[in-house]
Amino acid sequence: MHRSLETHMRDGVIACALVFVAVQILMAVDPAVMESTKAGEDMAPSTDPTISFWREAHPVYADKAPYGQNQPRYRTEVRSRWTERNLYFLFICPYEALNLKPSPSSSTETFQLWDWDVAEVFIGSDFQDIRRYKEFEISPQGEWVDLDIDLSKPHHEDGWTWNSGFTVAARIDPVAKIWYGAMRIPFSALQSHAAAVGDRFRINLFRSQGPPPNRIEVVWQPTMSHTFHTPERFGMLRLVAEEPNWSLGRRPGLTPADAPFPLAPQFAVPRFFHFLSKSFIVWTKDNKTI
C-alpha cells in the first residue's frame, strides 16, 4: 500500500529536525573549546583524579608542539571545575625525565619557575584587549608563580609581583612516571563580576618538560610561534552547569553505545549518530516518535 502524502511529509519533517540537531552537535564539538563543569562546593586542590570532583570534569588534552606537531608521548590531560568563588584545574602529566629546581619552596612564590618543569594556564577575561591576561604556573614539586601579563609592556615578566591568591597541590608518581598538578584560582583574580553559567574566558594550556638541551614544550592550542605568549592563538574556556546523574550519556538503562554524547568530546559525534540512526529506525518501524 502506498504511503499517504501526510506520512511522507511527517517523515520529511522528522528527518529535517534530526539533521538540524546533528549540525548543532557537530558545531558544539570544537577542539578549541574547553568546558569547566560547575561543582557543588569548594574544596582544597586535590591531585587525585579518581575522586568524584575530578571524574565529573570534561577533559581536554595538550599533545601538540608549539608549531602543531604531535607530541603523543607527553599527552597531558587537563580537567577543570568551577564554583561561584573559584576556578579549578588538574594537570595529569606523563614524563620521562624531570627537570626540577633545587631547594624548592612551596610556601613562597618562585620567580622564573618557567625555567624548570611546569604546567601553565594562560587565561584572560578581556575580549577587547587580548594582550592582557593572567598566567598561573605549578611545578611537580608544588612550587608556583602567578603573573599579571600586559604584552604592551617591554618586560611583561615584571607582572610576577601581582598576587592572585591562588593555591596549588602537586605530587609525583615515580613508578607510573606521571606528575599531577592542581590549581584553585579565585574568580576575583580574573574578572570583576560573580561567575555564572555561560561565562567565557580566553585560555591556553602549556607544559615545559625535561632538562635541556632536550626540553619539550607541549601545548593545547598551537601558538605557531617560539613563545607561549601568543594570545591570538588562545582557545576558549566556557563555564557550564553541573551535570545531574540523569543527563545525556548517564541516564539509567542506556548502554555506552546508545548514549548520545558521553563526557569525552572526541566520542560525542560518532556515538550521537549511532543513537540518531537507532532512534530513526525505531520511529519509522513503529510510525511514531520516540
Characteristic terms for this protein:
290 residues, alpha+beta, Immunoglobulin-like, twelve-stranded mixed sheet, 12 strands, globular, disordered C terminus
Report on the structure:
This protein has 290 residues and is α+β, with helices and mostly antiparallel strands. It has helices spanning 5-28, 52-55, 268-286, and strands at residues 33-38, 60-62, 76-82, 86-94, 118-124, 132-138, 144-150, 167-173, 178-186, 200-209, 216-219, 235-240. Strands 1, 2, 3, 4, 5, 6, 7, 8, 9, 10, 11 and 12 form a twelve-stranded mixed beta sheet that branches. Strand 8 and strand 9 form a beta hairpin. Helix 1 runs antiparallel to helix 3 (268-286).
| Overall tally of domains | 2
Would you tell me the structural class of the helices and strands? Answer: alpha+beta
Quick one: how many beta strands?
Answer: 12
| Portion of residues within helices | 10-25%
CATH class category name of the largest domain: Mainly Beta
Based on the coordinates given, report the CATH architecture of the largest domain: Sandwich
Order of helices and strands: HEHEEEEEEEEEEEH
Estimate the global geometry from the Cα principal axes: globular
User: Approximately what portion of the residues adopt beta-strand conformation?
Assistant: 25-35%
